[in-house]
Amino acid sequence: MKKQSRYIPAFHFHWLTRWYDPMMRLFFPEEALKTALIAQAHIQPGQDVLDIGCGTGTLTLMIKQTHPNATVYGLDVDPQVLDIARRKTEQAGETIVLQQGSATCLPYSDQSFDRVFASLVLHHLTRQDKQQMLREAFRVLKPGGELYVADFGKPHDSLMWLISWLVRWFEEVHDNILGLLPGFMADAGFHPVGEMTCYRTLLGSVALYHACKPMCHEDLAEENV
Ligand SMILES: C[S@@+](CC[C@H](N)C(=O)[O-])C[C@H]1O[C@@H](n2cnc3c(N)ncnc32)[C@H](O)[C@@H]1O
After folding, report:
1. What's the CA-to-centroid distance between 107 and ligand 1, angstroms?
2. Which of 38, 52, 124, 199 gets mutated to test ligand 1 (max ligand atoms within 8 A of its CB)?
3. Which residue of 103, 160, 169, 192 lies most exposed, with the fewest beta carbons within 10 A?
């Protein structure tokens, strides 16, 4: 596995990690957003599901609790945040495979998953790493598998434009605000790619995206005729 020496922790600074969950609950439409993302994914019993950049495991746990017959994996680069995810999983009495690793070099074989989620992780990655993570998501998805992303996106109204302008150099959010994520997904091979909905938050618009890995190359060729 490629060594990931530098990364942006869940709440920007390591010493804030333990406040991540309470702050998300208080200041972010976390439950609505994550519930909508899971509902859109139509996970079926027996499917294999990966949550990249799972952080404290809130979404990972929600996926498992909503779909107990799915096998759920969570991956994050940060051991500190994974400890919180492990504790929450144990307390909930659920079985989730939690693993440390990098989003840009996923420790899974090709075509391992039916669904891949990435919630609020892409804005932690440089442009190059965003593109690499999306290529990795494509690689580990089975043909016909689907990617579900929640992340900062292009603002849809003037208030969100103003907030986005103020936070545009925060972490690696700039490309998100410019609306480049769907294009990066298409470049990674996904088709079709779409924005499903978006939420107004205190830090700007958060969009939910859906992207499919075609069943085979012919699917793509036929649709492009
Ligand atoms: C804002 S948190 C989101 C956590 C969770 N997905 C959620 O929706 O609450 C971003 C997470 O991405 C993780 N992360 C950052 N860079 C990463 C990388 N290169 N590989 C894997 N995880 C990474 C951080 O450790 C952090 O837990």
Report:
1. 16
2. 124
3. 169
Residue pLDDT, tens place only, 138-183:
999 999 999 999 999 999 888 888 887 877 777 789 999 999 999 9
The token duo for 14 is 């390591």
Specify the CATH number for 14-224; select among 3.30.43.10, 3.40.50.720, 3.90.180.10, 3.40.50.150.
3.40.50.150
| CA of residue 76 to ligand 1 center, whole Å | 6
Instruction: Quickly count: other Cβ atoms within 10 Å of residue 74's Cβ.
Output: 27
Tens of pLDDT, residues 50-106: 999 999 999 999 999 999 999 999 999 999 999 999 999 999 999 999 999 999 999
Q: How far apart are CA 73 and CA 101, in angstroms?
A: 12
From the CA of 102, how far away is ligand 1's center (Å)? 10
Q: Which atom of ligand 1 lies closest to the CA of 125?
A: 16
What's the token pair of residue 45? 């019993």
The strand ranges marked E within 17-119 are 48-52, 71-76, 97-100, 113-119
Amino acid at 184: F
Separation of CA 158 and ligand 1 centre (Å)? 28
